[in-house]
Every structure is written in structure tokens, then in C-alpha cells.
Inverse folding.
């Protein structure tokens, strides 16, 4: 603001200076920091000489002045005369004084908010450290407890392993001698099958005693005469070499004539030709010549010839040995030794528990069928009756699966066992027929007159000495507990009962102990294989020695081996391993291996389902003995090969000596062999129903009739013998009102006759 006076002079009026108050003491470092004050209009009406700043009563010389800021140099030392904790800042402008705040010469203090934040952070860190310490202690304690538990488990497993090893060692040293000494007393006479049944089981393994060749052919009455005449003519045609060879060649040339058909046709031909073994042998040799020639011309691997039934000739060769070796098996040691081996395996496996469903056993030669767990079991002696004489009023029927069956997690239900029902020792068991109830009943009683009945389904369960589990063990080692379930589900791993999955000793999905048992390394149980092998080694060696004994060589073996040697020379095959392979494939591998794996083909016994694993190992050992190749064995090699690795050189020497000694014996001429074959035909004449075999064979003739007729018409010898016309007459005769139906499932065509009229007995052909 400007005023004008009388003397014409001007007066300027400026705003009064003002200072901003300090909210808290201003910290300064003596001798280093300047004191800065903020305000407004500081230099408008005053200059530096008009402004005086004092700190605690001592001057603070100005160093700078601006409109809104003032700077001065505070005293180097804190003023002593100040009455307050911090010196006061007083600014004097002219006659006006302003108290701006205080100056602190001490270290700067913390604000309350910052102090609170720092305090919370410190408390948080302390709590975190305490939590980490607690967690670490708990983790350490848990780890220590786990280590202690693992150590206890390891100690337990070590004790179990040691116990298992001791048991295996004791069994290996004591069980062998005891068992070998007891075997002759408990071995029954070998129950050889009759010739007819034996041949039928080998030639038709799926048909067995129900095959059509074992019963008369039945047709409708009004068709019987025509069919009889037609089958007679078919039989005459098969006795013609040209027709028979042409029919076989034509069928095998058809790509739809599969392996199953070749096997079946070969078996049927041998049944038809069995009554004329001389003619049969002549046709067989011709077919084998053609097969060998075909193999050499097409440069196939000659060593695999005769290994599989990929042709009618190979099947006929196996059947030829089957026919001619029956008397040899019954008369000499080979058949008896095979039965002793079967009986020995059966008895040894019955010494320990066996799972009823998986068929895994404590004592086995097969690693796949080894029960890899330990179960407590005890021997139970019972007495068996085949009548109902011991039934009493206290008898009760006990099924395999009932409300008392043990149910576990995972929807598993355990089969009942004799131990489950507390069957007493020295009980009396009574086997009743299936017709008396839904199941076979087995009754047991003791001196205390306790009686009951449990389910059974197989006669082999009624042995006089059984094993029964004390708690988790097997009540009957020869298949274990509920036999009725075994009969229907022995080979199944998914047995169910009203939605429950069934198991006996081990669950089918496992290969070890159940959840309630302590786990253990399953490989420790492989020592049982060695114990089983040591127990049965004598019987296996005796069997192989009897098979490859050159003291009593059947004429058919010598004759066929000489034929193979002759064929090798004709085709320039100089490699001795090829002929060795032919002989091994034709006889040991196609004949003996079949009987070893299926002893029920030769003996009147049930199919040995429970010892199939052991028999397969013995059969594999025989195959390895016939091999000329040395395989390098390692720890990863199959256990079946490792078990007999040390014995294999001895077995191979047996085979080599057998073939060498046979080749050195005098040759059997055709006349002598023909006389032997004629005697064979006379001895077993009428064993099979030839009309039934012709009927089965005709179904294949009808299927390939066009191709066979074309082949006959292009053959000069067939034309000279009017074979095409005779075949067409046969077809016309058979196709008059001919319809096809059969109830025999083994026929791949599913053809046959169905009537109540019996056509022809076998002795009328």
C-alpha cells in the first residue's frame, strides 16, 4: 500500500513477516548443520541487520535470507543457560519477537508410530523364532520315532529272514532224506489208462472221453443206409494213396485251413488209419518227405521243423509215436518214473499250504506259483468214510461262504477254512455225493461227538493226512479250503461272491502277505525253490534217464530216427545239430513234454491243475536238455533255468549218448517194421469207432470238395483210378437230405449228425 503526503513523499506499507512453528525439536549437528526456518514475507520490510536469531539466548548468525526462508549458523555447543531441555529459537524482527520452536543437540528420537511399528516387528520375530523352534523339536521327535519304528521293523524283518533261512536250511538237509525214505511206502501202483482212453486224451485233449470217436455214430433211421454207404466209400478212398495225399495237400494249400484244423484233421486221419499202421506209416513218411523238401527248398530254418503242429504231417507224427509207445510206457520204467515224479510233486506240495484260488504253494518248483509269504499251519489227521454212517443229530451244513466269512477292507471276503470251523484232530470225515445237496458234504466228528459238514467238490480232498491253518494258514494244502470254490474258480483271479472279491491266503492282485501281515522281501522265499528241487532231483533225474535209456529202444523210435538221418543225407544237410533238432522236436518235445505237462493223458488221475507249475518246470528242463545251444545264465535268467544249471550238462550228455547209440544200432528193414506195425494194428483193432471219425473227417472234405475235385482231375493217377468220379458219387450220396449239426465243441466246423438211431458199430467196417 502506498500513501501520498503533503510534501509529495510516498510511504510503502509491507506485510509483516511471519514464521512457521516447528512441531518438534529440530535436530542439528554442531558445527556441521545450519538452522533453517520457514516463513512468509521475511525480506520485504526487513534486511539481515533487522533480523536477529537466538538459540537458547545465544546468537545464531544469519547466513541467508529470502522471502520464505531464513538460514543461520547455530552455536557449536548447546547453550548452557537455557532453562528447558532443548534451547528455544527466538527470532527478533525490529521490535517484534517470534518463538519458532526448539533445537535439539542430542541424537534424533523415534516417533511414537515408528516406535510402535518397530515394537510389533520385534514381537513378531520373537514369536516366529519360538514357532520354528517348536516345529523343529516336533519334527526331530517325529523323525526319531520313525527311525525307532523303522529300526524295530528292520530288526523284525531280520529276525524273520533269519528264521526263514534257518527253516529253509533245515528243510533242505532233513526233509529230503525223510521224504525219499517214505516215498516207496506211499507210492501207489501207476494207474495206466487203457490204450483207447490214452490215445483219445492225447489226440483230442479238449474232447477226452466224450469225443465222438469213442462212441457209435447216431443218425436218423431213414438216412442211416445212405450215410453208411457214403462213409464206407470215403473209407475206401482214404485207403487210396493218391486220394489221401491229394486231399491233404489241397487242404493245407488253403490259407483258411488254420492250425487248429490241421491238428484235428491229422488226429482224425490217424484214428481212421490206426487199423492199418503199415499203410499209415507209408503215408506219414511221404508227407514228411514233402514237408522236409518244402523246408529245404524255401530255405526255412530247418531246426524248427517238427517243433510245432503247423502241418497235418507233424500232427500225424506225434500221434504215430502216441500209438506205438503205449506198450513201452506200461512195460518199461519211463511210465512208472513219470508217475513217481507226479506223485512226488503232489506229496511234497501237500506238506505246506497252497492258496485255493491263485494255486500258489509254499513248496513249488515254479517261481510264478510260489507262495511268497509265511503262514502258520498245522497237520490235521482225519479219517474218511465214503458213506453217511457217521451222520448224527448234531450235524450241521457249513458252506464255503456264509455270514461268518471274514470280510476285509476293499470289499474282500476270505474263504472259510477248516481252522475257521475249528475242525478237531482225528476227526471223521464223510464224503457224500453231490446229489444229496447243492454241494458235496464232508462231515467231521471227534471223540466228543461233535459233528458238522463242510463243502467239498473233489475226491482228491479226502486224503488221510491234511494240513490246516492254525490261524491264517491253509486248512488243506492240496488246494486249501473251500474246494467247491476251487472247482469253479481255481484258475480265476477275480472270483466274486455277491459282489465281494474272494481270496484264500493271498489276494490275487498281490504277490505277498496280506495287509494284516508284516511285509518282507519276497525274494527271500526263493530258497524254497532250491529245497523243492533238491527233494525232487532224484525223481527228475530218474525220469530223464529212463526216457533217454538206449537199453530198450522201441523199434518205432529207431525206425523214425533212421528215416530222419536218411532225409538229411538226401538233402545234403551236413550240420549234425539239424538232425539233432529234428529228433528232439519229434520225440522229446512233441511227445514227452506233452505227457510230463499232462500226466492225466497217460494215467487215470484228475487233471493236475495244482501242480501244473512244477510240471512245466520239469518239461522246460527236458527241452533245455535237448537243446544244442548254451545260454549264458545271469541273475536275471529264469529261475527254472538257474535251478537246473549245474545238472544241465549231465542231462545233455544223456540226450547226446541216446541219439548216438540209437544211430549205431542195426537198421530195422521195412519188412521187420511192417510186421511190427501189423501186430500193433491187430492188437488194438476196433479200439475206436471209425465211422464216427469218418463222419468228423467228412465235414472237412465237404468244405474243400471243389478244390479236391479239381486237384484229382488234374492228376493222371487219380483219373486212371476214377477218383474224381468216385468222390462226386460219394458227395452226392452223403448230400441227399444231409444236414449238419453237432454237439461236439472241439470240431472247428461244428458239424455232425443228431438223431436217436445208432448207425454202425465199429466192428462192421
Amino acid at each position: 500500500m502506498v500513501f501520498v503526503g503533503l510534501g509529495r513523499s510516498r510511504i510503502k506499507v509491507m506485510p509483516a513477516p511471519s514464521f512457521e512453528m516447528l512441531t518438534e525439536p529440530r535436530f542439528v549437528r554442531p558445527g556441521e548443520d545450519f538452522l533453517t526456518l520457514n516463513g512468509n514475507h521475511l525480506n520485504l520490510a526487513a534486511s539481515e541487520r533487522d533480523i536477529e536469531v537466538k538459540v537458547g539466548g545465544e546468537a545464531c548468525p544469519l547466513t541467508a535470507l529470502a522471502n520464505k526462508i531464513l538460514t543461520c549458523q547455530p552455536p557449536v555447543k548447546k547453550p548452557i543457560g537455557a532453562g528447558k531441555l532443548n534451547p528455544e529459537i527466538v527470532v527478533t524482527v525490529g521490535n517484534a519477537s517470534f518463538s519458532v520452536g526448539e533445537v535439539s543437540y542430542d541424537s534424533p528420537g523415534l516417533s511414537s508410530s515408528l516406535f510402535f511399528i518397530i515394537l510389533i516387528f520385534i514381537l513378531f520375530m520373537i514369536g516366529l523364532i519360538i514357532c520354528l523352534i517348536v516345529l523343529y523339536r516336533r519334527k526331530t521327535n517325529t523323525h526319531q520315532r520313525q527311525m525307532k519304528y523303522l529300526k524295530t521293523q528292520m530288526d523284525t524283518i531280520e529276525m524273520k529272514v533269519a528264521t526263514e533261512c534257518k527253516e529253509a536250511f533245515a528243510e533242505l538237509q532233513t526233509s529230503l532224506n525223510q521224504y525219499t525214505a517214505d516215498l516207496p511206502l506211499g507210492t501207489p501202483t501207476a494207474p495206466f489208462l487203457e490204450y483207447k482212453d490214452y490215445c483219445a486224451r492225447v489226440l483230442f485233449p479238449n474232447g477226452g472221453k466224450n469225443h465222438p470217436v469213442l462212441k457209435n455214430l447216431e443218425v436218423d433211421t431213414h438216412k442211416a443206409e445212405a450215410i453208411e454207404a457214403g462213409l464206407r466209400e470215403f473209407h475206401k478212398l482214404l485207403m487210396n494213396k493218391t486220394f489221401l495225399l491229394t486231399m491233404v495237400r489241397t487242404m493245407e494249400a488253403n490259407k483258411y485251413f488254420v492250425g487248429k484244423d490241421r491238428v484235428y484233421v491229422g488226429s482224425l486221419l490217424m484214428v481212421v488209419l490206426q487199423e492199418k499202421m503199415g499203410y499209415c506209416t507209408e503215408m506219414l513218411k511221404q508227407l514228411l518227405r514233402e514237408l522236409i523238401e518244402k523246408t529245404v527248398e524255401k530255405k526255412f530254418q530247418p531246426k524248427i521243423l517238427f517243433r510245432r503242429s503247423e502241418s497235418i504231417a507233424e500232427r500225424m507224427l506225434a500221434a504215430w509215436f502216441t500209438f506205438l509207445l503205449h506198450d513201452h510206457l506200461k512195460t518199461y520204467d519211463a511210465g512208472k518214473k513219470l508217475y513217481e515224479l507226479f506223485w512226488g510233486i503232489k506229496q511234497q506240495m501237500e506238506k505246506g499250504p497252497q492258496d485255493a484260488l491263485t494255486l500258489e504253494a509254499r513248496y513249488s518248483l515254479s517261481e510264478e506259483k510260489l507262495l511268497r509269504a509265511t503262514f502258520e499251519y498245522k497237520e490235521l489227521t482225519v479219517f474218511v468214510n465214503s458213506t453217511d454212517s457217521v451222520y448224527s443229530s448234531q450235524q450241521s451244513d457249513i458252506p464255503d461262504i456264509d455270514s461268518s466269512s471274514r470280510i476285509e477292507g476293499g470289499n474282500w471276503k476270505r474263504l472259510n477254512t477248516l481252522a475257521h470251523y475249528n475242525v478237531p484232530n482225528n476227526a471223521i470225515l464223510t464224503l457224500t455225493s453231490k446229489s444229496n445237496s447243492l454241494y458235496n458234504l464232508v462231515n467231521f466228528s471227534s471223540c466228543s461227538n461233535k459233528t458238522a459238514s463242510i463243502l467239498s467238490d473233489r475226491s482228491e480232498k479226502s486224503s488221510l493226512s491234511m494240513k490246516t491253518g492254525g490261524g491264517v494258514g491253509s486248512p488243506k494244502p492240496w488246494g486249501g479250503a473251500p474246494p467247491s470254490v476251487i472247482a469253479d474258480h481255481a484258475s480265476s483271479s477275480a472270483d466274486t461272491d455277491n459282489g465281494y472279491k474272494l481270496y484264500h491266503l493271498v489276494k490275487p492282485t498281490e504277490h505277498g502277505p496280506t495287509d494284516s501281515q508284516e511285509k518282507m522281501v519276497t525274494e527271500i522265499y526263493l530258497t524254497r525253490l532250491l529245497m523243492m528241487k533238491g527233494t525232487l532231483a532224484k525223481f527228475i533225474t530218474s525220469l530223464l534217464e529212463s526216457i533217454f535209456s538206449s537199453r530198450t529202444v522201441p523199434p518205432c523210435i529207431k525206425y523214425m530216427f533212421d528215416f530222419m538221418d536218411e532225409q538229411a543225407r538226401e538233402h545234403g544237410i551236413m550240420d549234425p545239430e539239424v538232425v539233432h533238432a529234428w529228433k528232439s522236436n519229434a520225440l522229446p518235445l512233441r511227445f514227452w513234454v506233452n505227457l510230463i505237462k499232462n500226466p492225466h493223458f497217460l494215467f487215470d488221475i484228475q487233471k493236475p491243475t495244482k501242480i501244473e507249475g512244477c510240471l512245466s518246470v520239469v518239461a522246460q528242463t527236458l527241452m533245455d536238455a535237448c537243446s544244442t545251444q548254451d545260454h549264458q545264465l545271469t541273475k536275471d535268467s529264469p529261475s527254472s533255468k538257474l535251478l537246473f544249471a549245474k545238472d544241465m550238462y549231465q542231462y545233455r550228455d544223456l540226450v547226446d549218448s541216446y541219439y548216438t547209440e540209437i544211430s549205431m544200432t542195426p537198421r530195422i528193414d521195412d519188412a521187420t517194421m511192417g510186421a511190427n506195425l501189423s501186430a500193433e494194428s491187430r492188437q488194438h483193432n476196433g479200439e475206436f469207432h471209425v465211422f464216427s471219425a469218418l463222419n468228423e473227417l467228412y465235414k472237412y472234405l465237404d468244405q474243400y470238395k471243389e478244390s479236391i475235385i479239381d486237384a484229382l482231375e488234374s492228376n493222371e493217377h487219380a483219373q486212371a483210378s476214377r477218383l474224381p468220379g468216385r468222390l462226386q458219387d460219394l458227395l452226392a450220396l452223403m448230400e441227399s437230405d444231409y444236414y449238419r449239426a453237432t454237439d461236439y465243441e472241439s470240431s472247428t466246423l461244428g458239424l455232425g449228425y443228431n438223431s436217436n438211431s445208432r448207425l454202425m458199430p465199429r466192428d462192421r467196417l
Q: What stands out?
A: The radius of gyration is 51 Å. Residues 3-104 form a domain with the Immunoglobulin-like fold (CATH 2.60.40.10). The chain has a mean pLDDT of 78.
